[in-house]
Amino acid sequence: KEILEKYHDLFTLKWEGVIGNMCVPSQAEWEQLLTNCSAFLFYGMERFMSHVLLNWLVAMNTPKCRLVILLDLVRSQQSYQRITSSDIHKSCLHTALERPTETAMLLSLTGVGSVIATQWYTTLEENAERLEVLFENLLSFGKTAGQTVHVLQ
Fold first, then answer.
1. What is the reported pTM?
2. pLDDT digits over 117-146, tens only?
3. Burial class (CB in 10 A: 0-12, 13-18, 19+), 128
C-alpha cells in the first residue's frame, strides 16, 4: 500500500482495484479489472491463475491492457492449504496451465501487450522489493518494460 501511495501521482489518479484483504474479488470483478485497465498489477499469494477461472480468462478480450505485472507465488500455511484443496478438483493439465510461463501465454492470447511475472516461489518482502524497482524504473525513470526487467535481472 505504501508503494502504491508513493507512486500514485507519477502514474495516474485513477488507481482502481482491491487492496489488502478487503474482500475476495468475484470472477466478474477480475474480468472487469483486467478488461478495463491499461496496466494490471497482481501482488498476492500463490499462483495468480488459482484466483481466476481458466475458462473465464481464455474467453476475455483485453486489448486495452498493455501490461500485466504478476507478483505472485508467495506461500503461507493458509494459502498452501487453500491451493491444495482447490487443486484436488483440477486435472494435471489444468494445474499445468497455471504455471508462470503458461499464464503469460494465456494472458498474451487474450490481448495483453506485455507480462512481467515471477517464475519461482518467493516471499512478500522480496516481491515488495521487486515492486519498488518496477515502479521506480517504469514510473520515475520512464524506462520500458524490457529495460525494467533487465534491471530486475
1. 0.88
2. 999 999 989 999 999 999 899 988 999 999
3. middle
- Coil/strand/helix, residue 134: helix
Alpha helical stretches, state H, 20-144: 27-35, 54-59, 77-87, 92-96, 100-110, 124-135
Q: Are 65 and 109 in contact (CB under 8 A)?
A: no
Separation of alpha carbons 79 and 63, rounded Å: 31
Q: Residue 19: exposed, middle, or buried by beta-carbon count in 10 A (0-12, 13-18, 19+)?
A: exposed
Q: Give the domain ranges of the chain.
A: 13-123
CA distance 104 to 133: 21
Whose cell is 533487465? That residue is 150
User: How confident is the prediction for the chain on average, in pLDDT?
Assistant: 88
**Whose CA is closest to 10, among 133, 116, 142, 131?**
142
Quick one: 65 exposed, middle or buried, by C-beta within 10 A (0-12, 13-18, 19+)? buried
